[in-house]
Amino acid sequence: MSAGDRRTTSETVAWRQGREQAPAQAQAHDQALQRAAAEMPRHVRPGTLQLRALPPLALYVHLPWCLRKCPYCDFNSHAWRDGRADIPEARYVAALLQDLEASLPLVWGRSLRSVFLGGGTPSLFSPRAIDDLLAGIRARLRLAADAEITLEANPGTFERQRFADYAQAGVNRLSIGVQSFDDHMLQRLGRVHDSAQACAAIEEAARVVPSFNIDLMFALPGQSLRQAQQELERALAFDPPHLSLYQLSIEPQTAFARRPPPGLPQADLAADMQQALALQAEAAGLQRYEVSAYCRPAHASRHNTNYWEFGDYLGIGAGAHSKLSFAHRVLRQTRHAQPARYMELAALGQAVDVEHEVARSELPFEFLLNALRLRRGFDPRSYAERTGLAPSSLQPGLDKAVELGLLESTPTCIRATERGWDMLNDVLQLFLPPAAGGLE
To answer: Could you tell me which residues come within 8 angstroms of residue 194 by beta carbon, excluding any fewer than 6 positions away?
Structure first.
């Protein structure tokens, strides 16, 4: 069977599961879709914002299961503990496509510039499931001809043919969660892979997809500056087109928050590491285009750049978030977080748990929270286009930030200074809405 024939066959797999196995749920889903279409006028009714054009649209798909929950992770991820059964990937893919279909009235007629399969550990899902999922997405939404399709992969799930099959399904970018090349450190971080698996996964990704990313962490327990630099040397040896360098942070509600690992570097050392690693990566030809992201020419993450430019994204899957623009408002949604509950409600067209319109007073902060992460900053005209607000609405905070040497401003560009980029939290404080403690 040719790849084209296989694609045609797989496009209907998850849809049929929802139709043939649960006709009552399918009927309820159809009714929910009709309700969603009928409710559209409330999103397009007149409002205080005036968006002249809608921003680019991306799709985020959350696949929530992991082999084991990492102690530093605060994402909506769930360890798959039932060794007697496989992850219910067919049912989950069906739920994702039902969720997507119920959301179509909100994005009708728009094209996708990127698709990002995140988690959790998406590479736990079989290539056949990923093929069914991507085929189902293509059947429901128009993808740009050059759409970036990224899948996050854990080296602990690496199999050589598996990566090739993901590429055959349409994945053209892999993001490899290496975190460290030190086996002892990987154990302390609760990772399920070792250094050899990480290296094999990177080598295969370089062979089968046009672009890939290496995720690497620094400021790890007991790590010295020289050790952090050696870790980056290992990553750079693979000549990665994209690199993400993250400082280990202790987030609330994580295992590390309850029991912090000993030997965490002090703030000054962590800052020295970030500066040294940035110089090291740039010396190797990688441009730091965002706080934690480095790339070679033409390899910046289109999906993440869309976030930072305050573009739109539809999020489907357990706990996924959406940000969608309309002519007079910006809408945010969150899906039900528990996978079992999500699958049950997605089959009924009720996957959305929380939905709210972003208040006009919150839009400056929300925009800057993303846009100032970019090294190049932003054009004030894009602020007006994405928020529907005049650039003058930034002026009180902007004047203060420029006075403090944290931002620089021209008629065509607002961006953080070197000092401001290292103090983004302080910069953003200047743009919080008055009720949140910002400027009056």
So the answer is: 183, 186
CB distance 22 to 349 below 8 Å:
no
Which helix (DSSP H) or strand (DSSP E) does residue 364 occupy? helix 363-371
Tokens at 193, concatenated: 């892979």
C-alpha angle 68-300-138 in degrees, rounded to nearest 5: 70
Query: Rounded to whole angstroms, how far apart are CA atoms 358 and 367?
Result: 11
pTM tops 0.70: yes
Task: Provide the 3-class DSSP secondary structure of residue 300.
Answer: coil
Judging by DSSP bridges, how do beta strands 57-63 and 287-290 pair with one another?
A: unpaired
CA dist 192 and 125 (Å) reads 16
Backbone angles phi, psi at 378, to 5 degrees: -150, 160
Query: How far lies 360's CA from each of 316, 386, 425, in Å?
Result: 25, 12, 21
Q: 307-365: per-residue pLDDT in tens? A: 999 999 999 999 999 999 999 999 999 999 999 999 999 999 999 999 999 999 999 99
Domain spans of the chain? 3-305, 364-440
Q: Report CA torsion sign: 180, 181, 185, 191.
A: positive
CATH-assigned architecture of domain 364-440: Orthogonal Bundle (1.10)
Q: How far apart are CA 86 and CA 107, in angstroms?
A: 33
pLDDT digits (tens, 9 = 90+) for 32-49: 656 666 666 778 788 889
CATH 3.80.30.20 matches 3-305: yes
Task: Give the integer Cα–Cα distance in Å for 221 and 185.
Answer: 8
Residue identified by tokens 């480095």 is 294
- Determine the Cα angle at 86 with ends 80 and 89, to 5°: 90
Q: Are 240 and 284 in contact (CB under 8 A)?
A: no
Each residue of 167-200: pLDDT tens digit? 999 999 999 999 999 999 999 999 999 999 999 9
Q: Say how many C-beta atoms besides its own lie within 10 A of residue 168's C-beta.
A: 16
